[in-house]
Amino acid sequence: MIDKSSNLTLYDHLSSSFCVQVRIALREKGIPFNSIIPSGLGTGQDRDPSWSSANVRTQVPTLLDDGGATQVFDSTIIIEYLEDKFGRSLLPETPAERAKARQIEDVVQTTYEAINWGWAEVVWGKRGSEELQQKIKREARRQVKVVHEWLTEQLGSQPYFNGNTFGWADVAVAPMVHRGVIYGDGMEPATNSPLAQWHARIMERSAVKQTLDEMEKGAKAMGDSYTTVFAPGRGNKREYGSHRLEFMLKAGGMSVVEEGLKEGTIRFGWPEGKSGDDV
């Protein structure tokens, strides 16, 4: 999507939960932007130096402003930048409410996102034996139910996580819950639950619906191509970082990690590690 009137360029991916968060924030604020999907994204094979020079981790989202003079990465930091520079704050009014919104964001960006990611590794990526895939799926369902219960407590009787108005915490939760809706099979909120009703409510917002529809399109494309892109021998490596690695180990997927390292289809984050005689 190219908007010649915009000074903002977002290195992006349709199905990335973190990119979805930023795109919702931009659209809710009415800020035009240009979206670019970097070549080699997510494979460990950077092919876009303008992107990698702006983000040492070679991850999305990455935001360029002022003709590239300002370079911002990490979804939370990007939205904080948008809050500082542009109007219509997404944060609630009081310090206590703002702290709660940020706490919700932190939980869903770490614990919840990792569960969703682990599901894709075995359902789309077909990693591990069929028996292990089923085990990891059961664990993902169990853990996501716990997260949904916690989120329901945070929502309470309010229409939004931000309170009476849609805001910061809702932007963070939206892509995580919607990914579960895309997956189905027990990863989505229970029918007619407060969380399901919240999801239906936010889908009435044009900025949210447009962005989550994009996410669904991107997720389908990724699911269809995953096993080809990350097939052994192609040199493409899926990044297993921090909370994602923790989920896989907690779910009993140590052999998935070991096999992926042996095949050369997984990697860890920047800076890259060395092993053996090179250490």
UniProtKB/TrEMBL annotation:
Signal peptide: none annotated. Residues 6-90 form the GST N-terminal domain. One of its GO terms (molecular function) is glutathione transferase activity. InterPro entries: Glutathione-S-Trfase_C-like (IPR010987), Glutathione-S-Trfase_C_sf (IPR036282), Glutathione_S-Trfase (IPR040079), Glutathione_S-Trfase_N (IPR004045), Thioredoxin-like_sf (IPR036249). Keywords: Transferase. One of its GO terms (biological process) is glutathione metabolic process. It comes from the Eukaryota. The keyword Transferase applies. This is Glutathione S-transferase domain-containing protein. It comes from Jaminaea rosea. The lineage of its organism: Eukaryota, Fungi, Dikarya, Basidiomycota, Ustilaginomycotina.
